[in-house]
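Hey, can you fold this?
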Amino acid sequence: MSEFKHIDCQKVADLLATDDVKVVDIRDEQSFNAGHIEGAFHLTNGSLSQFMQQADFDQPVIVVCYHGVSSQGAAQYIAQQGFEDVYSMDGGFETWRKSFPFAKAD
């Protein structure tokens, strides 16, 4: 069984700058629309099928939630679907927002 890994915000920023990674944000629509990591896919129960159809299973996936708790369960689920490299971002979007206050939101 595949397992997800933990990753901190700085490492996410480093990966986004250098690697081809996919960020999925599982927060509610209002929170996502208010701000998210640039290029993030808004992953919901309704968009899961679309994500799975479009996904590259070899591409690293970083799951983001509010505080880094809910993303762990979602990351585990994604890992179990066959993705090879799945991470839960520690601290969630709240830590990202504090660490990168001038980061652009889509």
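Oh, and this one too while you're at it.
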Amino acid sequence: MIYAFKGFIPVIHESAFIHPQAAVTGNVIIGKNVYVGPGAAIRGDWGGIVIEDGCNVQENCTIHMFPGVTVLLKENAHIGHGAIIHGASIGKNCLIGMNSVIMDDVELGDECIVGALTMIKANEKFPARSLIVGNPGKVIKEVSDEMISWKTTGTALYQALPGEMRESWEAVEPLREIPANRPSQESLYKTWNELKK
């Protein structure tokens, strides 16, 4: 659902896919090939939200801010399931792990990776290529070229997803039994642990 608020109507590029069970409100700008999953709340009521080209905001994420603040997700940022971004700036090609919390005035440099369940306190600043984990979030090492390559490949799947959703996604009635000719799904991507084996 897309909602105007106090005269602000979200601006969404036609190549983006916003799931109808997501809520996008007010002063929000969404770029090219962005995927926003069901349950995501992108609420630009008290401030702005800019989601640049190639980003994804997965299922049940929340993006919001204190009054007068603009949240920025730079190009190719990847926001994992259930993450909360509140008043922060996320650098280009960053990965925010599932159920992480990124608080107010946090600045992540380009190509940072934030581990799942990490909590980054307000006003923290991290240089590019920081691998951040824990509660509170701490840098444990520099992100390697191999890690960024893995992250970029995963993000590319999400960048293709808006077009695939427009081509083949539809509401249907469920089947009541498994058909004999049910196809198998191809494996498009390996987890980091699988890749390292």
